[in-house]
Amino acid sequence: MSEELVEVRRRKMEALRAAGTAVWPERFPKSHLTEEARALFERLEPSLAEPGAATAETVAVAGRLVLFRPMGKLVFGQIQDSRGRLQVALRKDRLGEERFRLLVDHLDLGDHVGVRGPLFRTRTGEVTVQADEVVFLGKALRPLPEKWHGLSDTETRYRYRYLDLLGNPETVKRFRLRSAFVRETRRHLEDHAFEEVETPVLMTKPSGALARPFTTRHRALDIDVFLRIAPETYLKRLVVGGYERVYEFARCFRNEGMDPSHLQDFTMLEWYAAWWNFEDNMAYTESLLREVLGRLFGSGPLSVRGRTVDLSGEWPRLGLLDLVEERTGIRVREHAEAAGLRAAIRAKGIPIEDDGKMGWGSLVDALWKKACRPHLDGPVFITGHPIELSPLARRNDADALTADRYQLVVAGWEIVNAYSELVDPLDQRERLAAQARVKAGGDEEAMEMDEDYLFAMEHGMPPISGFGMGVDRVMALFTGVENLRDVVFFPLVRPLDRPPDAPG
Prior knowledge:
Structural class: alpha+beta
Number of strands: 19
Shape: elongated
Strand order of the largest sheet: 7-11-12-19-18-17-16-15
Distance between the termini: 14 Å
Number of helices: 15
Radius of gyration: 29 Å
Oligomer: single chain
């Protein structure tokens, strides 16, 4: 049936061309968005001589035809643009019989049209453009899905996001909030002397985080390269070069599992500030997010994934090891070797995914994610992570087991990871060597030795604190969706051999 409808539309397109109509013209001089035209009429209406009269001013609006209702010598329709919908009225006596009939016989829902004419209000109260001219601006050869005004199938919405945007105002609102979040965050950073930079996406070493990379081949250089898993080491090279505060909204790629709170390609905000430690960074993080999120979502208590999250007041700081010990009853500090901690976990009957190769820090992290993180409403800062999970972070002066690091948890999700950076090249070399040994033992997420980065460090680094935040995760949380793919325009989906006849 769908292909039959496509054929009908093709015949209409051919008839329009035969009649001398440009079906896909190059431009249309639009004077107003639909919301601007409506606002104009509201300003002019009080000066009209009588109710129902048209304005003397002509507007030119354009958009997609989403309603078309012929009523003899009169047609009411609606056009939709990026800011809303507006009613248009086509009358035979104003357009002429030949033009009126051409439009009635050849317009379809989904077509793009331009309409010129004065504004008036109908007896039902609808602000309307009285069409003196209607221009074809783009014939839709394929009909919109039958339920285009509210696609509900999840995969269809991800695969055909353009149809989701057309039919679901909440989707449009969610993506506009995302854009506003990035814009307001960028403004706050710039106001605090941060400079925006760009770093490589293709890297010779997969560094900056513990993750499995995507590998590709650079033909001209005849070398393997990796899609970046984080911009960290290049941003810190810029600090070596004299930039004191830098940030980047960076697309990152991690060849890992996909679930509602993880994507394999995602947007990360990272910043680095010279002369700060992790506590300075924590204070700035709190002020930035409280201001930006408060501006977009309100400063009072918010409902986030069914939990109450209050951005006001000072956000608590809790130690990770203390939380794990409190929640599990396992004295993790007393089991400083992996074998002993593994035995204690088994004795408690706590189910974690353990392949038998996990180190002490990884076991602690598994306990944290299983027994602690899901129960935190937040916002709450978690500090004191195992040093072996933080190969680029500064070791805590008082507790050699932990790093000067924090994470921000909201509604059971980690949304920020930050720390005082390791700036000692000798310590960094030892830790990267340990990571390389772990990688050689089969841990695909461990880091490699990176001599080029160590070479940069050896030229001298000031004290630095860095920050990383998944933009997709933050927006999923605060817009009330369960899956990160709902805040990414075009998430990766398995390709189809051919498009379906009628998505939706």
